[in-house]
């Protein structure tokens, strides 16, 4: 892309902030199907599926309350992750992404390595991807981090359970076989499925020293089926299809769930995957930010074909699709 076009694009995307509206993302009570509930009545299911359908077809994002995943649980995960991130670089290096033979996506991603909007400089964030639960994975083992593996693994499994419940309601909401999405996510937690728990740490920023156009996390839409997001503080902005930008609030105890690109494609654009980003803090604000994103991905070998039979998009396997998207975020070299 010519240089002038690059800066024109960045300028255009910076323009976003002038269109920020105080419009909220829907909040849905998931209590009837929370992790501690076994059964729910037809009536409860019907209500939930209607509410999720409205949120996912109109906004692409929803806050779920009463899911069974508590604020304390989330704080516990964030605390141990912060201990990992605050270590000196040489202690994080041995856990770098791409250094694990059985899963290239597992591990630590250093500051400015990833650009979720390839037209911007590298994102001002660090991440740790729990992408594999394979017994051969080497985990941090220092005294301060001896619980790291256990905490990551159990939170991964809690998020998996909630995701499967949400996927079931989503299929029902479109009048599909309730098992349709579930059957395509039967290998979450194995190396034949790309689902990843990503802990993000946004260190203090001197905004005036950041590179031109640099953000904490560039504009992007997620890759897989759905994403569960837990955030410590504000900063996330969501762009609606209409072009309006919503500043996502912090609602303690809720899970923010969004549709990702493969799900939009699967549902022939009925569910919408919208772009979002994390801004730099205001000048003079040296606070850090943390978030946990659980990126749900169908099993690698599943062929994604439009579920309404329309063939609006050509079939693609979930694994090939994910690889293509990683190449965009990390550069093709
Ligand atoms: O940190 C956040 O709040 C959002 C991060 C995000 O959108 C992503 O990593 O895909
Ligand atoms: Fe995202």
TrEMBL record:
Q: Does the keyword Oxidoreductase apply?
A: yes
Q: Report keywords, A-Z.
A: Iron, Metal-binding, Oxidoreductase
Query: Can you tell me which residues the record assigns to a coiled coil?
Result: none
Domain Fe2OG dioxygenase per the UniProt entry, residue ranges: 193-298
Xref: InterPro entries: DIOX_N (IPR026992), IPNS-like_FE2OG_OXY (IPR044861), IPNS-like_sf (IPR027443), Iron_ascorbate_oxido_reductase (IPR050231), Oxoglu/Fe-dep_dioxygenase_dom (IPR005123)
User: What molecular functions are annotated in GO for this chain?
Assistant: metal ion binding; oxidoreductase activity
Similarity remark: Belongs to the iron/ascorbate-dependent oxidoreductase family.
What PANTHER family does the record tag this protein with? Answer: 2-OXOGLUTARATE (2OG) AND FE(II)-DEPENDENT OXYGENASE SUPERFAMILY PROTEIN-RELATED
The protein's name in its UniProt record: Fe2OG dioxygenase domain-containing protein
Q: What organism, scientifically named, is this protein from?
A: Anabas testudineus
